[in-house]
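Bug #77: duplicate submission created two jobs. Keeping one. Sequence:
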Amino acid sequence: MLASSDDDKREMLRQIRRIQVRTDRMVTDVMAGGYSSVFRGSGIEFDEVREFADGDDIRSVDWNVTARTGRPHVKKFMEERELSVLMLLDVSPSADFGADPKVAKVATPATASNERLRARSVRETAALVSGCIAFAAARNNDKAGMITFTDRVERYVPAKKGRRHVLRLIREAWAQERIGNGTDLAAVLQFASRIQRKRAVVFLISDFFAAVPERELRLLSRRHDVIAVRIRDAHSETLPRAGLLRLRDPETGRAVWVDTSSSRVQQALVQRVKQDRTAFEDACRRAGIDHFDVATRGSVADPIVRFFRMRERRGGHR
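Kept job's structure:
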């Protein structure tokens, strides 16, 4: 459980309000970065069948109607006027890694530049990413929904429009009470495939310490535009040279003693981080989806904007 005492709940409310303020401000940059041009009209829906005319694409011919009438007909499609955005958010215990949010202060204009340098927890960073995407969808009159997960689906919030709904999504992202202790990416991808029938833009937001299930990811990406967002904390990829340290896995509870002053241990960690990153990128490539990283230190909006602009230059969705 992420919250138990009244003090914890009051702290959560303060943090939720803080995230609301920050994401509302960031969304201007995200919209300017190409959200609407990248995702608007990314899906199409059937409109009607009409007779073939000069200039029509031969690939649009409806052969069943053509055979029945004896005259060539084509299927006419129209761009969907409404887009659905679905965020799959990892709220497993590893997301608690990073800076203690209780020491964070709300940014003021005088401290805004310092705020960009402040370290955040993985969970807070993921909530900011979710808020930016949800506010961008609302600003574009699109619907946004969320599935939070651990080693099971924790909560499903169906996609809706409106600012009030976005605020609910931010509360779910930050204050979600969880039951599970591990991470099961395959389970949430299977659940999303079942419940999201209409084409959507799906953001899978996680630290991706768990292996990427390529089969489930590939199946989901056949119907939806799937984007993996990896939340990175530099401290999880390095060790201080502090002698013997007892390290504990937050999801399994297993603890080990590690000699952080050992060059062999340091080099093994560097190699492991490199291998994990390569495995993640290769899995996304084989599944046919895009991905980008957001760090727990620095701007959250900037990497989102860079990704949208890359997609815009490339010509929209994958």
